[in-house]
Every structure is written in structure tokens, then in C-alpha cells.
Design goal:
By secondary structure, the chain is an alpha/beta fold. The chain has helices spanning 28-42, 60-65, 70-94, 116-124, 142-152, 186-191, 199-207, 222-227; strands at residues 8-13, 47-52, 99-103, 112-113, 128-132, 157-162, 183-185, 212-216, 234-237. Helix 5 runs parallel beside helix 7 (199-207). Bound molecules: adenosine-5'-diphosphate and uridine-5'-diphosphate.
Amino acid sequence: MTTPKYKRILLKLSGEALMGSDAYGINPQTIAGICGEVKAVADLGVEIGVVIGGGNIFRGMAGTATGMDRATADYMGMLATVMNAMALSDAMRQCGLNARVQSALNIEQVIEPYIRGKAIRYLEEGKIVIFGAGTGNPFFTTDTAAALRGSEIGAEIVLKATKVDGIYTADPKKDPSATRFDKISFNEAISRNLAVMDATAFALCRDQKLPINVFSIFKAGALKRVVCGEDEGTLVYC
Ligand SMILES: Nc1ncnc2c1ncn2[C@@H]1O[C@H](COP(=O)(O)OP(=O)(O)O)[C@@H](O)[C@H]1O
Ligand SMILES: O=c1ccn([C@@H]2O[C@H](COP(=O)(O)OP(=O)(O)O)[C@@H](O)[C@H]2O)c(=O)[nH]1
């Protein structure tokens, strides 16, 4: 059996990863595929915390473009991540995984609040914990929520699952000549202003000495390869 390199991980799934080829929302085949990738890692005995984005439903910055107050738009974005968290937990249940959702915003009739000790207990019991509502604060992103929750639960690494297969010298969607880094230090990633992740998230992980690996969620088996310490995506190190 393959031996995982990490005992506990924090997986950040971008909201847009749930869209598949749709224009917005959640694509059932895509979410089922992602659950399959997560199951392959859970079956190795790895403890998994998940932070889910909301960009497939609502993005705060898009709201402000229409003149909406930034904080109001950000709260709407956080509620979007709650919907994704609920959809993901249900899809996980359908593929035989035991998941719990916790929310950084209080909506007790819908999901339980974020309680760090309880989240850690669930992880120890082998349950997957999905953290909804980001950090619970406007002006932040779910990447920062991943850095925060990853630090809080004592994860050994933050795995950022996204649409690109690593960190490039420039946004590969806009610049076809961009080249991929195998690894990059936090300081270089921050000083190069790489838009793949926000500086707050990079800085928090750097200060907590929590490495990040950026990889493609659409590449079959990539998540398992990262967890097993194989060369996949881009590693951000201290
Ligand atoms: N230097 C870079 N290397 C890799 N991806 C980058 C870079 N700059 C910008 N990106 C973009 O960042 C996105 C990954 O961030 P993510 O949070 O998943 O996306 P979004 O915020 O759009 O949901 C990629 O889809 C890619 O287009
Ligand atoms: O701690 C947080 C996390 C998220 N958001 C809001 O929720 C939206 C969705 O999160 P994000 O853009 O990080 O999702 P992703 O890019 O991963 O799909 C953001 O645009 C913000 O408006 C926020 O205000 N605070």
C-alpha cells in the first residue's frame, strides 16, 4: 500500500473547481469526480480538513463592481461558500465518505458553528471536516481561510486544488509563455506578486511554517500523488 507523507492535510477547493464546464454553479459529475479524488486519499488514513471557495456562485469583488458595498458583497460570498460546503458534504456522503460541515458564520439551524476542538475530534475520528463561510470576515478570501484553518487544526500542509497545475511566472491563462515553478519560496512568491493566491494567505502560511502545494484538481490522481510526496504541482516552502 502507498504510504502517505502527511497525516493531516488542509485541502482548499476553489469554488470554480465545482463548475466543471458549466458557466456557474455546481456540476454534479464534477463534484462526484472530486469526491473520488478525496476518497482515494481518505482511504490511505489521511485526516482531511476542507475549505471550499464560493467563486462559482458569488465573488465579493464582482458585487462591488456594480456599486454594492464591499462588506455586504463579501458576506454574500461567504454564504455562497456555505452552499458549496453543503453540496460537497452531500456528494461525499453519496460516495461513502463521512463528512461534517462547520460554519464560521452562525446559522445553527442549517449547519453547526466552527468549534476548533470539535473539528479536531472529528478529524481524529476519521471524518472529513468541511469549513464553510471562509474566515467569517469580509475583506478576506477562502485562501486565507485555508491558511487559518490549516494552522488551527495543525495540518502539515495546505493543498490548493485549482484549475491550473501549479504556480507559473505569470497567469498561464493570460500569458501562454509563462513557465511553471517546481517549487518556490514564500518570500519569492510574495515579492513576485503572483496572483494565484493572495498575499495574506501566503504570509500566514509562511509565518506558521505551513507549506502549500498548488496543483490541478482536474488531473486524475494528482491529489493522491501530492499526499504521497510525489513530484506534482508547485510546492511553496519556507
Ligand atoms: N502566477 C500564476 N500561476 C498560476 N496561476 C495563476 C497565476 N496568476 C494567476 N493565476 C490564476 O489563479 C487561479 C488559481 O486561483 P483560484 O483561487 O483557484 O482561482 P479563483 O480565485 O479564480 O477561483 C488560476 O486559475 C490562474 O488562472
Ligand atoms: O474569509 C472570507 C472568505 C470569503 N469571503 C468572500 O467570499 C467570496 C468567495 O470566496 P473566494 O473568492 O475565496 O472563493 P474561490 O476563489 O476559492 O472560489 C470572496 O470573493 C469574498 O467575497 C470573505 O469575504 N471572507
